[in-house]
Design a protein that fits this description.
Strand order of the largest sheet: 1-2-3
Largest sheet: 3 strands, mixed
Number of strands: 3
Oligomer: single chain
Shape: elongated
Distance between the termini: 73 Å
Number of helices: 8
Order of helices and strands: HHHHHHEHEHE
Structural class: alpha+beta
């Protein structure tokens, strides 16, 4: 016996429509939440790389730096805004924040140079295009190299990154972490 509650009483008596009502009842039992991919908090983790490709976050646009599903979801949520403001200091801050590295300070112009870095840029007229990012989180050398690639994609085209500075977050000598090539002395 089929459930004819989907049919009006006049059509429920017809045998032709009873099969159609049974099929419609089966379709209503299907879970459609996997199809709602733009509800990022409900989307399965296996779909996130496909959404990153669709929203142009793969390659040097930061996807390779997102190490957790929460960071990936945060990047996907802010992807359109990030691309809208790409090439501004705000996009640099927003990208680093979305990746889970916290708040940063961006120093632009000649103030971005420390005395030891000024020798690499002897022409004082180009100092206006230089910037330095001061992080409040310790990062590895591998993360620093990838972050440099990502910042090159999101920074203004005229600008050049002088240094990623994380000396404010020292690496303690407590036998938990060591300078074995994974970390350095706070700037890259």
């Amino acid at each position: 016996m089929t459930d004819n509650s989907l049919l009006p009483p006049l059509l429920a008596a017809e045998k032709h429509f009873q099969g159609l009502a049974a099929q419609a009842a089966r379709l209503q039992q299907i879970d459609l939440t996997p199809l709602l991919v733009y509800l990022l908090d409900m989307t399965e983790a296996s779909a996130l790389p496909w959404l990153a490709e669709q929203l142009a976050l793969t390659g040097v646009n930061g996807w390779h730096l997102a190490e957790s599903d929460d960071a990936r979801r945060a990047m996907l949520k802010s992807a359109i805004t990030l691309h809208r403001y790409k090439g501004t200091p705000w996009s640099i801050r927003a990208m680093i924040r979305a990746l889970g590295f916290g708040e940063v300070t961006i120093t632009e112009g000649g103030a971005a140079l420390k005395p030891e870095q000024a020798t690499a840029y002897p022409d004082g007229e180009t100092h206006w295009a230089l910037y330095r990012v001061v992080l409040n989180t310790l990062i590895t050398n591998d993360q620093a190299a990838r972050l440099r690639e990502t910042l090159a994609a999101f920074a203004p085209a005229r600008s050049e990154l002088v240094a990623l500075d994380y000396t404010a977050v020292p690496l303690r000598y407590n036998n938990q972490t060591t300078y074995h090539g994974r970390y350095n002395h706070g700037s890259s």
